[in-house]
Input
Amino acid sequence: MREALFIKKNKERWLENQHNPSQDPDEMAASFTQLVDDLAYAKTFYPSGKVTAYINSQASKIYLDIYKNRKEESNRIVTFWKYDLPLTIRKHHGVILFSFIVFVIFFAIGFFTSQQDGDVARSFFGDSYVDKTIENIESGNPFGIYESGSPLLSWLGIMINNIKVALLMFVSGLFCGIPTLYKHAETSAMVGIFDQFFAARGFGIDFWLVVFVHGTLEITALIISTAAGLVLGKSFLFPGTIKRMDAFKQGAKDGVKIMIGLMPVFALAAFFEGFITRLYNDVSVLTTVIFALSVLFVVWYFIIYPIRLHKKLSVQLNEEEV
Output
């Protein structure tokens, strides 16, 4: 059978499975069995065809749904963090990588622009903030700004502000992702300017060890929030082989799932900034350990684990096929 005829014959059923999946376990199992048969046929006759990759992705999704339905009601939250979110992150790793590259580029632009013009920091952060920080540096406490104010109020204020910014970046994806990229570029440049401000005064390494006690999680969450906004815009602009509105609904669903998953990350980052970062002078070992653990968590949960989980699911799917 020619590939075009194979697609025409089964397309309606595939789209029905994709956009109106049954919640009945028996029907899900029947759909999965049919897809496995289709996948076996496609791998035999069209091994490098796009239809093979498409059927594989649909079969993987149904397999995961069947697996989830085996869980008890009380395990839904665990399932979200253990399976749903990591697989969604894996699905959009390319967009997240793009968001990270944009961050690096504009971080570098901010850093080197500030290096050429010292007044750039004042235009971004304001005279009072810069003057206060210079005063702290001269008094031997360069990051004293983090020791001011109530830890509890700082935590709540920072958390609310960062979540508000992240949600704005996500929703801005509705406008083709352009406002999302603009805000992301601006934030990235600000971090670069902030880094250069301390590096120019001999505190380049200290900047990373102190600011990134909370900044590791905070910046990671902002990068991924940007990616969620881009997923939203991309799903409408580039729907692929499905209807534009269906693609948009899927992109919105994935984006919302990512944003929900980031809420605890923002809360923890704000907690670190409000309660832990200020201890860098008194308990530097603690702040350094938290910085290191944050880096390990980001690399593991957002990069390594989603890849390993996706591979594991693919292997299980292939075993079911056999």
